[in-house]
Write a structure and sequence with these properties.
Layout (H helix, E strand, L loop, with lengths): L2 H12 L16 E5 L8 E2 L5 E5 L6 E7 L2 H5 L6 E2 L3 E2 L6 E2 L10 E9 L12 E5 L12 E2 L15 E9 L3 E11 L1 E6 L2 E2 L34 E8 L7 E10 L7 E2 L2 E2 L7 E10 L4 E5 L5 E4 L2 E5 L3 E5 L18 E2 L1 E2 L6 E4 L5 E7 L3 E4 L5 E20 L4 E7 L6 E5 L4 E5 L6 E9 L9 E8 L5 E5 L2 H16 L1 E2 L2 E2 L11 H14 L3 H14 L21 H4 L1 H13 L2 H19 L37 H22 L3 H22 L12 H8 L6 H15 L8 H12 L4 H8 L7 H6 L26 H6 L2 E3 L8 E4 L9 E8 L2 E10 L2 E8 L4 E7 L2 H6 L7 E6 L2 E4 L1
């Protein structure tokens, strides 16, 4: 008997039912092969050291990876790039490629097999694939081009979408054809009339290039210095779209974030007018290689999209369609040539995050004709996307107008018809937020001819939660919808209609909940890169939105994203490499924070504009309160401590012992100052509106701990009658803080309310998304309050990560149940496979069951009673503790 099976046998003796899953000896192969967190066919990388991951169906003791430029080689167990050989070890997550240098613009295929605990080899995994991008700037032969009539130094009010074309020949049998392309703001590429790919709003938002006039922005002027600029490009396999002989490629450019023009009645400093770069590599079966590149030979025209603006909508005039534009053989004699445009300062970098796609299609749940002849459709819930018309009958001269209903005025959505017939259409370069739509300008319309398409970044749900408390399930459901509605162009926004801005504060607060629900490793890998890039290289300041959009207000809790987001990511995915890249930016931000320390040791931000004026929107503390906000300086001090504490932990993980000690001491000093300055011994409180939550999360002196706990319980249960009293920042911490301080029953009560202020009250008002304010004012599609809802999974289901073995290598399941729970089950996909935790409470009896994936081990804390777990959740004596390996368990 092997050591491993002996250990499992002993485990089985202590737990009622630990079962090994299938062994590799039966032929099971690794699955879900990923490269740099990406899964699927269209994976693009431009690093020579990509990291590979897979999921096992048995316990791994060794692995072998093969990588080749030809898929056929893998079938023969051969390779021209890398054969790792049999490599001893259990690691199956982020294994670094260590083969030969890869060529640019080529396909790479890979597979893996493993050996189990008995030394039996698995089958080879089904091969996966990635495409290499440009490893050197000199690989780019194409040039940036744009419309001749759009002058970056001229008027900025041109919101039409230019279109470009190029004819070329395919002279022989193609082995492979790849298109490498970036179109700013966004692009739609077509070959011979067919759209290339199924992406929208691509490429993702980044700090593309310098905008020196941001200093005089009337909304939020900011020193425009950033650490680095970058621009993302994508790759598409277009082999099957080409034909022998004449072909035509077309590029349509939308404004996106690159040429916003106007937001909320403010003129925004644009990056410039749209432009693109495209390089298509044609590889022939006989070994020849040709390139089709963007240059001044391309032809240009005004497209039928006569107006497109991220914030104000889109108008399509079919009268401007040019017959034959998308196919070869067009008479181009009347067309002008495109012109060379200045390249963005941002280095062209492979888009290694998910793109936006149509993620859900909804049919009307109700449909009626109104008295004025218009049509009203209700699609059942609020989404971010558009209405699509499918084969509607139109007459020449009709203008179809769609009014998308939300709490803000509808953006323009119009289609001008050029002829009698049927029309199938939807917008391309903006999204709308709506549940209901009113359609006018058309004589007849059948509900079968319209659908609503939800369009958002392609982050797939990879977790489920169920609970006997139906209200909790409904709360989670509306938060999920709001979060998806706010994920576009590779960032998460505050709201998808009024602002559409990548706020760092909203992002870091909601992130734990996003990580717990969606497959977002590649998404955050990209966005954390944006946050690092947007940091001021001289001061260390991190802006309130990243990439920087010049209308983002915030304060220290926003810039804290540079510390919080990498740490949360590390705990979820165990990515040490990303953490290493963020350590210096963390230190730089804490150093910037230090400059706001005042004489008593607390922190008070009073950042001014570049002209020296005091400015409220730089220095927020908390935001969107239930009643009132806590003191700004108290929140500033908390986040100074929080960032120093995280930086200390990161230093320790990375072996920087001096840094760990230094930042730990700094965090202690800040916490001591907080405790000295903000505690009132007469009231036994740090203050209302979340102040006591911040204090308990940081840690208060032992001699006042019970007093503060009692004060907080009294505050919430008596003064506010069992309701929340906090803004969205404190809301991130309130439920976990209550649970870990013997008050999980209070957390349950706060979340179980149906009157104001509560999530339940929103649901009673008909909400299908979460809102910006407890009272329902302003935006009704804000996911920021979701951050605190991780309580469902961490406290009820008990699932937690271990920073000492992150990425669920060591799983901790330590629930803090309440008598009213009934049952709660949380299932999530970890880097090693599916984890399940099921907790059932029947009176004082707790039953736990679930599944631990291969490649991991777990510590299961089974409550001895519900009272013990609630009142003393941090005391190991409240639990029976079991160390288990992979398999299923019941306690």
């Amino acid at each position: 008997m092997t050591t491993f099976t002996k250990r499992l046998a002993s485990i089985a003796a202590t737990a009622a039912g630990i079962f090994l899953l299938a062994s590799c000896g039966n032929g099971n192969a690794p699955s879900e092969l990923r490269c740099e967190y990406q899964e699927g066919y269209d994976i693009l990388i431009d690093t020579q050291s990509p990291r590979l991951s897979w999921i096992n169906n048995c316990q791994q003791t060794a692995y072998q990876i093969l990588v080749a430029t030809d898929k056929a080689l893998l079938k023969e167990g051969e390779t021209d790039l890398w054969d790792s050989g049999r490599t001893e070890g259990s690691e199956s997550h982020l294994v670094k490629y260590s083969g030969n240098l890869m060529p640019s613009m080529e396909d790479c295929w890979w597979t893996v097999r493993i050996w189990d605990a008995e030394g039996k080899a698995s089958r080879w995994a089904e091969p996966a694939h990635w495409t290499t991008g440009m490893f050197n700037d000199t690989d780019w032969q194409a040039e940036w081009i744009g419309a001749s009539w759009q002058d970056d130094n001229g008027p900025v009010d041109d919101n039409a979408a230019p279109i470009f074309r190029k004819e070329f020949k395919v002279d022989g049998e193609l082995a492979c054809a790849k298109a490498f392309v970036c179109g700013l703001g966004w692009f739609e590429m077509a070959i011979n009339g067919d759209k290339v790919g199924d992406d929208f709003f691509a490429p993702g938002l980044t700090d593309y290039t310098a905008r020196p006039k941001l200093l005089v922005n009337p909304r939020i002027p900011l020193d425009p210095a950033v650490t680095s600029y970058r621009t993302l490009y994508l790759a598409y396999d277009v082999t099957d779209m080409l034909r022998k002989g004449d072909n035509a490629v077309s590029m349509l450019l939308g404004n996106g974030y690159f040429h916003e023009g106007c937001f909320n009645n403010y003129t925004i400093e644009n990056y410039g007018y749209p432009r693109f770069i495209l390089q298509m590599k044609l590889e022939y079966a006989d070994g020849r290689t040709e390139y089709v590149c963007s240059d001044e030979s391309w032809k240009e025209a005004h497209s039928p999209i006569v107006f497109n603006n991220l914030h104000r909508g889109e108008v399509y005039d079919a009268n401007l369609e040019i017959p034959g534009w998308y196919t070869a053989g067009l008479d181009e004699s009347s067309l002008t040539n495109a012109v060379i445009k200045e390249a963005p300062q941002g280095r062209l970098t492979a888009n290694m995050g998910p793109t936006d796609k149509v993620m859900e299609t909804l049919k009307p749940v109700s449909f009626e004709k109104l008295e004025d002849g218009s049509w009203k459709a209700d699609f059942g819930k609020v989404i971010s996307g558009w209405v699509r018309f499918e084969g509607v009958n139109v007459s020449k001269g009709d203008t179809i107008k769609v009014k998308l209903l939300s709490e803000y005025p509808s953006d323009r959505c119009e289609y001008i018809c050029a002829a009698d017939g049927k029309v199938t259409t939807n917008p391309k370069f903006t999204w709308f937020v709506f549940r209901e739509a009113v359609i006018s300008g058309i004589g007849e319309l059948d509900p079968s001819q319209i659908v609503a398409q939800a369009v958002n970044t392609n982050v797939k749900p990879n977790a489920t939660f169920s609970c006997s408390n139906d209200l909790f399930c409904r709360i989670e459901q509306i938060w999920r919808q709001s979060q998806l509605d706010n994920m576009h162009a590779g960032v998460a926004t505050d709201c998808p209609h009024r602002e559409r801005l990548p706020y760092t504060g909203d992002g870091q607060i909601a992130m734990p909940m996003v990580l717990a629900n969606f497959d977002v490793a590649a998404f955050y890998n990209k966005w954390i890169g944006d946050v690092k890039a947007s940091q001021n290289p001289e001061t260390g300041y991190v802006p309130n939105g990243s990439p920087w959009e010049p209308c983002c207000g915030g304060g220290p809790a926003w810039g804290a994203a540079i510390c919080v987001m990498p740490w949360e990511f590390y705990n979820r995915y165990g990515d040490r490499e990303l953490l290493e890249s963020c350590l210096q930016p963390m230190k730089d931000f804490v150093a910037y924070y230090d400059t706001w320390t005042i004489e008593d040791g607390t922190t008070a931000f009073h950042m001014t504009t570049p002209s020296g004026a005091q400015f409220y929107w730089y220095n927020l503390g908390d935001w969107s309160p239930a009643y009132q906000l806590p003191k700004d300086e108290l929140v500033h001090t908390f986040f100074h401590w929080y960032c120093a504490d995280i930086t200390s932990k990161v230093c320790k993980v990375l072996g920087d012992e001096d840094g760990a000690e230094s930042y730990s001491a700094k965090a202690d000093r800040i916490r001591d100052a907080f405790n000295n300055v903000y505690y009132d011994p007469q009231t036994k409180s740090y203050g209302d509106f979340g102040s006591n939550v911040y204090a308990l999360y940081m840690g208060v002196p032992a001699d006042r701990l019970e007093d503060v706990r009692n004060t907080l319980r009294e505050e919430l249960m008596v003064k506010y009658n069992g309701h929340v009293n906090v803004g969205f920042v404190a809301h991130r911490f309130i439920y976990e803080t209550l649970a870990m301080n013997g008050m999980n029953d209070v957390a349950w009560t706060l979340l179980n309310q149906k009157d104001f202020p509560s999530f339940g009250w929103w649901l009673e008002q008909g909400a299908t998304t979460t809102w910006e304010a407890w009272n329902g004012q302003d935006s009704r599609n804000h996911p920021m309050f979701g951050g605190g809802l991780v309580w469902f999974y961490k406290m009820l289901a008990g699932v937690q990560t271990d920073p000492a073995e992150p990425g669920f290598k060591h799983i901790i399941i330590r629930p803090i149940p309440v008598k009213e729970l009934g049952n709660a089950e949380y299932s999530t996909e970890t880097p090693y496979g599916t984890l399940v935790s099921n907790v059932t409470v029947n009176g004082d009896k707790v039953t736990m069951s679930g599944r631990i994936p291969y490649g991991t081990h777990a510590t299961i804390y089974v409550p001895k009673s519900t009272d013990a777990a609630i009142l003393n959740p941090m005391d190991d004596n409240s639990y029976e503790i079991h160390e288990v390996g992979p398999g299923t368990y019941v306690f």
